[in-house]
Amino acid sequence: MNSNWFTFLAGQNAHIESGCVQHFGHAAEELTHTEMDTVLIDLSHLGLIRFSGEDAHNFLQGQLSCDLRTVTSDVATHGGYCTPKGRLLSNFQIWQDLSGEGYWMQLPLERVDAVIKRLRMFVLRAKVTLQDESENLVRFGIAGQKASQLLQASLPNVSIPAGPLLWAPIPDGQLLRHNAQRFECITTPAHASSLWTRIQEQAHCAGAECWEWLEISEGIPAIQAATQEQFVPQMINLDAIGGVSFKKGCYPGQEIVARTQYLGKLKRRMYRAHIDSPSVVAAGDDLFSADTQNQACGTIVRAARSPAGGYDVLAVVQISSVQASTIHWQRPDGLQLTLLPLPYPLPPS
Predict the structure, then answer these.
(1) Residue 67 lies in a domain
(2) Are residues 166 and 213 in the same domain?
(3) In the 8-state DSSP scheme, what is residue 247?
(4) Which of 28, 34, 87, 115 makes an SS bond possible with 229, Cβ 3.0 to 4.6 Å?
(5) What average pLDDT is seen over the chain?
(6) So where does substrate get bound (predicted)?
(7) Residues with Cβ < 8 Å from 92, sequence gap 6 or more?
(8) Are residues 318 and 229 in the same domain?
(9) Annotation-wise, does 201 bind a ligand?
(10) What is the pTM of this model?
């Protein structure tokens, strides 16, 4: 986390651990505000990689599952970075920088070093530079029914992006719209503090887990260290949210991803669910069902405490197990998952 931004947030009563805002003194209330009101959330738990240089586009086009030709002067997209076996090392969102010649990639902070290290192995003579910018720029989210209204009042000369995954320039940065009620500001620490202060007059401050809960509610996956190299993109619904192109050229794992799409039958998909657990539910936890007996039938991909209590999760589970039986957390007789609807349709498996 940027040191100046850390000082500013600490002055707002933020409880910060390992560079991540845990809460602002009232974690349970902040989850309720996230569900019912409008909230401000620091996003320092997410990493930011900048790609620059005249070969940045072609280099990334040959490495990622998404088609960078769709990432234009105001459009972002989801994407994935796979091993040659088609297994995801990370997923992300990517958009152009203000110059129109470079790109920003946002992903879980814990995945930044591994992704940079691996991508640099393939730079060779390409004129492209990869730089971890996680501590140089501030990112914070605004979410809720009044989010668009508050942003327009605080940025009167900015045209608020009209739809999901669109962005617009703001003073010293960019404004990215994730969906109808969720936005993200990417800007300098100096501008971030003044913008935060203006919006805060009519919004509640909330910790990082609240952003996690919002993304889980929207069915957005996040590969972490506990789940790296376990899933092909379709298993975490990356194809359903526009993160996989089946028309672009080659990239690592492309043959297996395409074979899964056209020749194979997908056996696992990502589902949204609730677990009424007082204990911590975490990415990488195993799931079980009666039809697989003592063999795990699925894995937690993402988990966050729910405003209703317990945990809301995204989990990759065998489709046959979901159709045939109940799903249980950690052991065959563990707490049962209550399946919840996803906000998007799944392609036929």
Answers:
(1) no
(2) yes
(3) S
(4) 87
(5) 96
(6) 184
(7) 78, 79, 80, 81, 105, 106, 107
(8) yes
(9) no
(10) 0.96
